Amino acid sequence: MDPYGDEISIGELIEKLWRKRGLIVFLPLVLAGLTVAGLLLTKATSAEKLSYYIELTGLKDNAYPNGTAFSPQDLLNPQVTAELGQRFPVKNTGDLGESIQVQFGTPLSEGVLTEYRAALSANSKASPEEIALINQRYEERVNATARRGLRIEVDYVGLGLTKSQGTELAYALPQVWNQVFSSRFRIFLDAGIASLPTVETDVDITTTVGALEAELQLTSIKEGIGILKEDARFRALQANGVSPGDLERKITDFQRIYFDPIYSGTFSEEIGLSAIYRRDLVLELAELDASLEELNERIVAITELQRTNTGSSTGRNEFNSGSSQVQIEGDALNQLVTLSRTASLAEYLQASFDERIELIQRKATINTRLQKMGDSSGSGSGSGSGSGSGRLLSDDFLAIASDRLSNIMSLYSSLLTEAQATARSETPTLYAVTSQIQGQKLIEKRDGLFVILSLALGGMLALVIALLLPARSTSQ
Description:
Strand content: under 5%
Distance between the termini: 26 Å
Largest sheet: 5 strands, antiparallel
Shape: elongated
């Protein structure tokens, strides 16, 4: 028996593999083709998205020019999405909020994140303290770079749009946001003006309700004018030849000549809305008096406490003047504590005085309103709808007063529009595009790895099959 009969011949293996060369070449190519087809089918059936970056050039510290805080969700404000819905064939504008993602980010922040992941990989065996330091260092860098811009991602397939329509919508989104917030939300004017009530021109000052509305409107306008005058950009601003100072004088003249007589006559009734409003003012005065009494007691208590602290500190200094160095050092600590308490009391006292001044001003305003209403004892009965003013003032006087009030409100609206335009000219746009629209690639780098793996797997499988298949028998 030949002991070498079971040995494997390399030549026979090579010859056997050569005979199956077609299978060895064909099977890996088939598996690679199936892999590519599967990747393409997956990408074709999935929701393709478009993304790009913009830089927030018109914001400072993530706030609009007037100081209002900015949020990436502002780009998905209902007014913004409604405007987009009118421009593009979207069935439901509610889908825009679900198919569009806006978040802080810049291309630079993506690079920092890549560097952060590399740092973690390089320090995989570091202690928890070292990893915490790495996290803290890169967190600050990521936040600093990311908040300088936005990453906008649009799922145009989910919106039922073509790729070209999705591209147009992606670019239009920040444009519409810039337009809507600049024109409708007055982000370039002081936030105090934006918080004031909207001015309405159709106010009938001959009625009790109308007089109340007109008073609120005039108060709001005067506050807005005060804010405009404090801003150096708008002091010399003019709309229809009228500056904020000119309009303020017009309001003063209107109130003295026209509004005060109408106001007094309108609220001269003893019943109806006039009596209710008068009663509310009296109740508010009583509430203010109670608040002022409490404030006065608080101020007296704080003053006495300050005097006590100052006296005790002086006594300790005189007592300890001849003591040892150790006692002086201990007394110095006590002095620091006393000074800290005194400073806190001084701040609290100043806040109390400011609050007291504000209450006194509110009380003076209410007393002025009551005095303008006049004495209601001899006015007779009425419905509270302006019959008293109608008996005292002519129709021509009331018509002129209404025209003057409408003119004042119109001039104020024009001043705000002009101020908004002036401020907007300084910052014409809130953003700048920093990257082009990018979509998902059909074949990415990681997809190439799958193809290479399928080729390797197919090659190994083909070799195994070729070796296991029996060789063909040849006839003699």
